[in-house]
Amino acid sequence: MEASEKPKKPFRKLRIAFFALCIVFALLCVLCVILCQTKVPLCRDARLFTNDSRGFRLISCGVQIVKRSGEAIDVNTLPTPDAELFDEAMRTDMDYYETGEIKKIPIYEQRRIDSSIFSMVVVVQNGSVKEENATTDMIFIASFSQPRQKFTVISVARDMLVPLSESEWKRINTAYANGGIGMLINTINDTFDLDIQNYVITGTKELAALADGVEGIPAMLTEAEAATVNATCGSSLTAGKQQLSGEQIVTLLLDRTSDNKGDLGRADRQVEIVEDAFLYMQDKFDSKFLYPFFRTIFNSILTNFDFETLRDVGYEMAVSDELTFETLRLPFDEAYTELNADGAYALLPAFEKNRILLRQALYGKEDIQREAGSEAPQDAWVLPAVLGVLTFGIAACIVIFAVKRRKKKKQEAKQA
Fold it and tell me: What's the number of domains the chain is made of?
């Protein structure tokens, strides 16, 4: 009996070790699946991307993009703000109270409408983009369509009243003050049924420096606008076309009093200046000017665009001879109601009409059909790969075990 039992001991130990390794391997595979399916922010803090000898540097500050856990706000099911609700919204608006601690709101994933269109929210913070200052008077929706070779910029009136929740109506710049770029993008997407996932943030200081870097920006001034700029900047401009410095152009962009049109007048003026600046810089674009200008831009923004996409789109826009440029304002004409409460002012948009006009402007069609299935995440290959490795490992374990068992039977047969 002892002679026949001795070979069993080493085989038994080998079998136990073999099954232990299989269990560890399976647990590691499950852990890999869990980690790969967990959404992780692209970057928690600002990070730099550099590019070869031309010295490009992009400061990127990632905001987490996650799947929405609940339902999106449906504006059509909400009651229209009455006088009492509007008064409450204005009393707690960011114009009157400190914002307090800024919430870190993630951007909610959206199914793409058209993968050939690059859309983003552009925010110009008051002050420097490097400061912890979440107030803004300049919000834009920018979109570049490759098939149509069209660049569209829509100035969003900061006094536009939108729902931040099912019971909380605020002016849209409050979304940025309360929850940063994540809450602002989610609010725009939910309110107007868009698919924006990307952003670019800069500050008025950086914007002024950019304007000075291209020897100023041309603008057509009225007498009232010239007087406003002169009073703020100590200059002596007159009505007509003027080449404005960085400080002067920022003053004009923020002006909401010289034309007696309030925030609507400011939003209209902003897109006019954006178009004038774009056409002016497009005329100046050449190989000598292009790269230093892009380096300056990349050092003046925070974005979640990857370097290559931002560079390629910017370059294509700069050199394209067929590029068309369109500027608009949200809310659109005859698609809003003006509201007042104790001197406070807001614009209540006609949501469905503005949705339709936005679809036409950004996507060239009124009835949006989103692309079939949500866009596959960049790590979509990981789960199939892990499952494949796991299947291969199990199959290999079975084969090895069968071979070992066959060898054992042969040894037992020889000993018998």
Answer: 2
